[in-house]
Structures are given as structure tokens and as C-alpha cells.
Amino acid sequence: MDKKGILVVVSGFSGAGKGTIMKQLLEEYPDRYALSISATTRKPRPGENHGREYFFVSKAEFEEMIVREALIEYAQYVGNYYGTPREYVCQQLEKGKDVILEIEIQGALKVKEKYPDTLLLFISPPGAGELKNRLVNRGTESKAVIESRLNRAWQEAQGVENYDYFVINDDLEECVQEVHSIIQNEHARVARNHAVIENIRAELKDFAKGD
Ligand code: 5GP
């Protein structure tokens, strides 16, 4: 098996429940996965903590991270900046953990361009009505922001074909297991196992010579 972890991007419409799914995945398999914590200029929602859900920073701090090239990617979403700090992601991949970036589509495509072997997953609720209900029931955003997020969801739906897998979040536990299987199966791809394959070939060559 390949020792280095896989970079996994998980996107999905705002309110698709991907945060809950990722939290559960990490709880069930803490040794396999690492979740990247993004920086954002959005204000924390009630219950969100600096360094847990996000690193909440000012616009000036965020722009300074861009200049320092401390971010793998960044994008604007409904009036705020969001970006992925580079250092943690690289460290965890080296340790062999599969690193999950829960980011929107523009960022996902930038990551894929820089790191073509990134696995892209898209998570969706079963239908659009469900999406609206989840956003409204969350009760943390104004009507205008909910409308902007639904509008953005419509735009993002046009880009789903860029992703490798489309997973429907109907039942939380089933969805967690499906995401886990997809990522773990990815480790078995021939293209991700060149080093092991070359090793076995070299050994076989020696055996064939009678060594
Ligand atoms: P929210 O404000 O609901 O937490 O996130 C809004 C959107 O920004 C979500 O689609 C989320 O996946 C995305 N997002 C979170 N962090 C990042 C990031 O580091 N980079 C990018 N490009 N998008 C992000």
C-alpha cells in the first residue's frame, strides 16, 4: 500500500450536512483521517470556536496569508474569504493520513489543478427542497444570506461533473460508511501503488534469475 495519504476534497451545497458527516467520519476513524481547518473572514456562528471549526481572521490577516503563500488555495464565498492553510495538510499527508478539505467548488478545482491525484467528492441532500429546509432550520443566517447561499448552490450544481464521486446524504451513518469506502478503495488504485509494484517487479526479476 502507498504510505502517503490521499488528499480528499469534499464539497457540497451549503446545508448539505457535509460538516456533520466529516465530524462523524473523524470520530469513527481518528487514525486514518485528518481534517484541515480553514481560515475565513466570516464571523463565527453561535457555538463555533476559533481553531476548531475555522481560524477566524480579519481581512488584513487573510490577505497577509495570501501574500506569504501560506494557503494551498482560497476563494470568495457569499462575501467572505475562505482558504486552506498549507502546512498542516502537507504534514498530515506525509504522516500517511488521508487529509480532508471541506471546501467549495472554486477551491476544489484549484486544488485538483495543483495536485491532480486529489480525490473529489460531492455530497448532496436527496433533493433541493431538503436543502432549503436545512438552511432555514439551522436558523443562523438571515433571509438574504440564505437566498445568496441557495443561489450559490444553483451555480455549484453546474460544476458537479468535475467531481469523481457524487454521494447522497440521506442517512448519516450510511453516508459516512460510503465516504469511508470510497476513500479507502482509492488506496488500491494501480496509479497510487507504483513504488510497491516496482519493488515486487525487482524482486521477481531476481527470483527469475535464480537468486
Ligand atoms: P460556511 O460559511 O457555511 O462554513 O462555508 C461556506 C462554504 O465555504 C462551504 O461550501 C465550505 O465548504 C467552503 N469552505 C470552507 N473552507 C474553505 C476553504 O478553505 N476554501 C474554500 N475554497 N472553501 C471553503
Please name the defining characteristics of this protein.
211 residues, alpha/beta, five-stranded parallel beta sheet, four-stranded mixed beta sheet, 9 strands, 45% helix, binds guanosine-5'-monophosphate
Describe the structure.
The protein has helices spanning 18-28, 59-67, 86-94, 105-114, 128-138, 143-157, 172-186, 194-208, and strands at 7-12, 33-35, 38-40, 54-56, 71-77, 80-85, 98-102, 119-124, 165-168. It is α/β, with parallel strands linked by helices and 211 residues long. It has a five-stranded parallel β-sheet with strand order 2-7-1-8-9, sandwiched between helices. A hairpin with a 2-residue loop joins strand 5 (71-77) and strand 6. Helix 1 (18-28) crosses helix 7 (172-186). The chain is globular, with a radius of gyration of 19 Å. The chain starts with 6 loop residues before the first strand and ends with a helix. Guanosine-5'-monophosphate (5GP) binds at residues 14, 38, 42, 73-75, 77, 82-84, 102-104, 106-107.
